[in-house]
Design goal:
This protein is mostly helical and 294 residues long. The chain has twelve helices and no strands.
C-alpha cells in the first residue's frame, strides 16, 4: 500500500513540475496581461520607434513578472532533484553523502547549502496556509467612506425602530445577529455574470473534460497505442487532475497587480463554490476512473 501511495505522489510531483511553471507564466499573463505601452520620449523616432519601444517594454515587463519566487523555487527544486545535489541536500537514502565524507572546504559549502535548503523547505511549508489566508481575506471588502456612512445610518435607523427604551441589549444583539445572517447570505448571492461563469467552469471541469479524458484513454488502450501509459496509475493521476477544481493560486495571481486586484473577491467566491461542487463530482469520477483504468 505504501509503495502504491509513493508512486501516486511521485507522478503528481512530476505533473506539478510542468503545471506550476505553466501557471506562473502563461496563466499569470492571461490573468494580468503582459502589455505595456512604450514611451516615445520626444526622440523623433516616430511611430516605428514607438512600436519598438513598446515591444522592448513588453518583453522587459514579461521577464520581470515571470521571474517570481514560486517559479524560481520550482526550478531550483527540480535542479536539486535531478542532479547529484540531492545526495547532499536531501539525504535519507543509501546514496546520500554525509558532510564528514567531504573535504573541509566542500563540507562547509555543503553545510551552508543544506541550511539554505532547509530554510527554503520551512518557508515552502507555509505556502498552503498563506494561500488559504489570501483566499479568505479576498472575501473581505473594505467599504468606501460613503458606504461606511450609509451602513452607519442604516444601523442607527434599525436601532431606532426597535424598542431600545425597554430592551436596549436585546435589540442591539438582534441587529448584530441580523448583520451576521445577511453576511452569511451574501456568500450565496451571485450576479448573472458570476452565475454564468460558475456554470461554464463547472460543466467544463466536472463533466466535459473528465468524459473526454476517460474516452480518450480507453480508445488509446483499445488500439494499443504507444501513448497509453504502461502504468495505469499514470492514467489515473492524469484523469484525477483533469476533474479537480481550479487552484486557489489564481486568487494570489490577481492580487499581485493593482489593476486586477478588484477581481479577487469575485474569483475567490467562484473558486469557493467550485470547491463545494467538486465534492460529489470528484467522488463520482474517481469511481469511474478506477473502474475504467483497472
Amino acid at each position: 500500500m505504501s509503495c502504491f501511495v509513493y508512486r501516486i505522489a511521485g507522478y503528481i510531483a512530476l505533473y506539478l513540475i510542468g503545471w506550476s511553471p505553466a501557471l506562473w507564466t502563461f496563466g499569470y499573463l492571461l490573468l494580468t496581461g503582459g502589455g505595456e505601452k512604450g514611451v516615445d520620449g520626444g526622440n523623433g523616432l516616430g511611430k516605428s520607434g514607438s512600436k519598438w519601444s513598446s515591444v522592448f517594454a513588453t518583453c522587459r515587463k514579461i521577464i520581470r513578472e515571470l521571474i517570481n519566487p514560486p517559479l524560481v523555487g520550482i526550478c531550483l527544486g527540480t535542479l536539486i532533484g535531478v542532479t547529484p545535489l540531492r545526495h547532499v541536500l536531501i539525504g535519507g537514502t543509501a546514496s546520500s553523502i554525509a558532510p564528514d565524507q567531504l573535504p573541509a572546504e566542500l563540507a562547509l559549502i555543503a553545510a551552508v547549502a543544506k541550511a539554505l535548503f532547509e530554510l527554503g523547505v520551512l518557508i515552502g511549508g507555509a505556502a498552503l496556509p498563506g494561500q488559504t489566508l489570501v483566499l479568505a481575506s479576498s472575501f473581505v471588502k473594505i467599504p468606501s467612506p460613503q458606504e461606511a456612512e450609509a451602513n452607519a445610518t442604516r444601523k442607527q435607523n434599525q436601532l431606532l425602530l426597535c424598542d431600545s427604551a425597554t430592551h436596549p441589549q436585546t435589540t442591539t444583539l438582534a441587529v448584530k445577529a441580523r448583520e451576521l445572517v445577511e453576511r452569511a447570505a451574501s456568500l450565496f448571492k451571485m450576479g448573472e455574470s458570476d452565475l454564468r461563469a460558475l456554470l461554464i467552469a463547472g460543466v467544463t471541469r466536472f463533466a466535459i473534460l473528465p468524459a473526454i479524458g476517460v474516452v480518450g484513454f480507453i480508445a488509446l488502450r483499445l488500439v494499443n497505442s504507444p501513448w497509453y501509459p504502461t502504468d495505469p496509475i499514470v492514467a489515473l493521476v492524469v484523469l484525477t487532475m483533469i476533474c479537480m477544481p481550479s487552484a486557489q493560486n489564481l486568487v494570489l495571481l490577481v492580487n499581485l497587480r493593482e489593476e486586477t486586484r478588484h477581481l479577487a473577491p469575485r474569483l475567490a467566491g467562484l473558486l469557493l463554490r467550485m470547491y463545494v461542487l467538486a465534492i460529489p463530482f470528484v467522488t463520482a469520477w474517481l469511481t469511474v476512473f478506477t473502474a475504467a483504468m483497472a
